[in-house]
Amino acid sequence: MLQTRFTKLVGVQHPIVQGGMQWVGRAELVAAVANAGALGFITALTQPTPEDLTKEIARCRDLTDKPFGVNLTILPAIKPPPYAEYRAAIIEAGIKVVETAGNKPQEHVDEFRKHGVKVVHKCTSVRHALSAERMGVDAISIDGFECAGHPGEDDTPGLILIPAAANKIKIPMIASGGFADGRGLVAALALGAEGINMGTRFMATKESPIHQLIKEKIVANDERETELIFRTMRNTSRVAKNAVSTKVVAMEKEGARFEDIRELVAGARGKMVYATGNSDEGIWSAGQVQGLIQDIPSCAELISRIVREAEAIIRSRLEGMIVQPQREAAE
Q1: What are phi and psi of 248, to 5 degrees?
Q2: How far apart are alpha carbons 42 and 109 in whole angstroms?
Q3: C-alpha span between 163 and 145 (Å, rounded)
Q4: pLDDT below 70 — which residues of the chain?
Q5: I need a labelling partner for 295 at 20 to 30 A (CA). Which of 13, 86, 206, 306 fits?
């Protein structure tokens, strides 16, 4: 068993996290992750109202008695969701760990901590991680450029970002972006992280609440099957490469503004991808890690395999590379 500061902080068996994913982080997936000894997060804003979130948390509790959390992503919007009401629903439901992402979450951090809720904040740069640490969060999730969703604007891959953050961050930190197996877990630990966060890999599991054809598409795709949209708007998002994303990138190159592509990138269209199995229906998030995903296991199978592989690499492969220097023969 691999125990780290992060597993002790959040009270789980394995240093593996299923982070928040819009339309995907639902009770059936989160409970399966929790039952396998890892930490899953329900995505708050997938639920239409705070009342629906309360029901989803209850549904998850019916499926597991293990710890799980809720993701609350704070993003700029013309008509922002009622964040304070979602926050209140999380606190009132007795959730003990929250994953925050997006804009400075100071008021949310203060309120959560007042009620004994641990906060894990997602960041895409060392400077933002240090800012979150000063803000009082309990742990950092550091996202490399490989990740699905928003990788920030610095384009720093995990191989650099994780140890750069580990050099400066004192609180526990987990690594996000590009993780799918035991090799990645060992690499993250070696680079200074206390565990890994996976999104795309958990999308391709039996309990993931998305269409089987999308799971099979993730398996079929290689590491080149993503696009970076919104680059020209400095709000970069890594999504699965399809007819829609390719069109958006082409329009951006021709100077398109957000109003020109709004219909193409609408969240409602992206939601339909997961419902219908038509991967060209809209924009949907996926990382470069698709190139490492070759099957659709249960969450229990996936998590136990990752831990087993990681332990074998540490005990056998790495330890086997250490050799004692032979003493020179006495003259």
Answers
A1: -60, -45
A2: 18
A3: 14
A4: 328-331
A5: 13
Model pTM? 0.96
Collect all residues with Cβ–Cβ distance below 8 Å to 154 and sequence separation of at least 6.
124, 125, 145
What does the pLDDT read at residue 326?
Answer: 80
> What would the DSSP string read from start to end of 155-207?
---HHHHHHHHHTT--S-EEEESS--SHHHHHHHHHHT-S-EEESHHHHTSTT
* Sign of the torsion angle spanned by Cα atoms 289, 203, 267, 23: negative
Tokens of 219: 């398996």
Give the three-class secondary structure for 56.
helix
Q: Which long-range contacts (CB under 8 A, 24 or more apart) does 21-26 make?
A: 21/199, 21/202, 21/203, 21/285, 22/46, 22/73, 22/267, 22/270, 22/285, 23/210, 23/270, 23/271, 23/274, 24/199, 24/202, 24/203, 24/208, 24/209, 24/210, 24/274, 25/71, 26/56, 26/209
Which H/E stretch holds residue 120? Answer: strand 118-123
State how far the Cα of 137 lies from the Cα of 196, in Å rounded to an integer: 18
**How far from 291 is each of 65, 220, 298, 306, CA to CA, in Å?**
34, 8, 19, 16
Question: Which two structure tokens, joined as six digits, stand for 250?
Answer: 């082409």
Q: What sign for the dihedral angle of Cα 28, 62, 18, 111?
A: positive
Question: What DSSP assignment string belongs to 90-117?
Answer: HHHTT--EEEEEES--HHHHHHHHHTT-
Phi, psi for 271 (deg, rounded to 5): -60, -35
Residue 114 CA from chain centroid, whole number = 25
Q: If DSSP codes are grouped into helix, strand and coil, which group holds residue 294?
A: coil
Contacts of 258 (CB under 8 A, 6+ apart): 230, 233
**pLDDT score for 147:** 97
What number of other Cβ atoms are within 10 A of residue 276's Cβ? Answer: 13
User: What local confidence, expressed as pLDDT, does residue 201 receive?
Assistant: 98
How do residues 35-56 score in pLDDT, each as one tens digit?
999 999 999 999 999 999 999 9
How many CB atoms are located within 10 Å of the residue 329 CB? 5
Q: Is residue 33 within 8 Å of residue 7, measured between CB atoms?
A: no
